Amino acid sequence: MEFTQALLIRILAAAILLGLAVFVHEAGHFMVAKLKKVRVEKFSLGFGPRLAGFRKGDTEYVLSLIPLGGYIKMAGEEPGAGEGRPDEFFTKGPGSRIKIVLAGPLMNILLAYLLTVTVLATGIAIPQYPNIAGTPSRELEEIGFSSGDRIVMIDGRKTQDWENIVHAVRDFSEEKKNATVKIERNGEEIIFEDVSLRALAGISPYIPPKVGEVITGTPAHEAGLKAGDVILSINGEPIDDWTRMQRKVAASADRELTFRFRRDEKTFEVEITPVDIMGDGQAIIGVSADTPDHRVERYG
Length: 300
Prior knowledge:
alpha+beta; four-stranded antiparallel β-sheet; 7 helices
């Protein structure tokens, strides 16, 4: 039940964000229409049945039931519907009408700009992953990459953490398709020649298969998993990083899996059936990884 409530809260949050975008759009039309002396008969916050409202001047301001944006109704906004009065939309010149129409999308652009500036100035949390690779793609696995490899150099550039790896792959991808990659494995250095930068860009950092959070009401919660549990295997297949576990779970909708995990030096087994709640073919059990430390990056 609580998981369903959490999902509904996310849907409501998305609806509010969409509503804000639509409301700002309509507010743009409204302000320029007023500036151009077009009579606005109604400005509604939301759609559907009227909940409350008041009239000021020629405009009725309304709060409606469905909070998905809003709308304005201008006098004579439908071709042929007006009476030819000077305060109607279609009696205004083409320049004024164009400005009223463009004001909506321009307000959306302004909103996006202000939100972006606010987020960047507040700061973005960037995970501090070490330079250790997680489960590689099939392409990288075929040439010898393995989970737990420490990527120490790409085409002569040292990579001391995962952010270095991301930047190196991005920079070199602008010039070529392949690169030489040096890794460390069990204290030994291994060099791979002509590694596809596209494939390398798709590799994930190593994340231990340790549970950071369990969402209430999900299959993992009902099975008894807790934060701090370390997943050891699924159906007998060893799990050495979080990515491998995610892939196994995602491909197992409505199929019971046996999870073996460690908690406080003791080992347990539980049966968990992943569910595809979004209908996108990607099943989940309702857990998130134990995330590493973050640094906050702020931009001017």
